[in-house]
Amino acid sequence: MRLRLIVIVTWLVISPPSFAHGADQHVLGTIMAIDATHVEVKTSKGQSVNLRVNKKTLYKDQRNPKDANVPEVGDRVVIKATKEGKVLVATEIHFSAAKHVPAPTPPMPVN
Q1: Would the pTM of this model clear 0.90, i.e. be above it?
Q2: CA distances from 57 to 2, 33, 47, 79 (A)
Q3: What CATH number should be reported for the domain whose range is 23-96?
Q4: Tens digits of per-residue pLDDT, 46-79?
Q5: 23: helix, coil or strand?
Q6: Angle (CA) 54 61 101, round 5°
Q7: DSSP 3-state percent helix, strand, coil across the chain (nearest 5)
């Protein structure tokens, strides 16, 4: 009886934080297309995911958190989204610019 009580109390203490996570979904990948109403993301598995964007969507640049930039095609993103019917709506878009590799400089001729 005492063991049952301990198990039940432990379950009640541990389970509420798992329910607090909500019904949000996360999409990780690279932006393939973006405009004022939608974002298309290609995941690492090669899938293309379309998300709707609205005025409540928050953009967070990981390199410049105080800046009000929006992501560009090629940027890596982590998008927090909610499902409204059959459509995913982005609530937060965390992004960082893709690494731009500088063009190699030709070697200097030696005389």
Answers
A1: no
A2: 50, 16, 23, 10
A3: 2.40.50.320
A4: 999 999 999 999 888 877 767 767 888 988 999 9
A5: coil
A6: 125
A7: 15, 40, 45
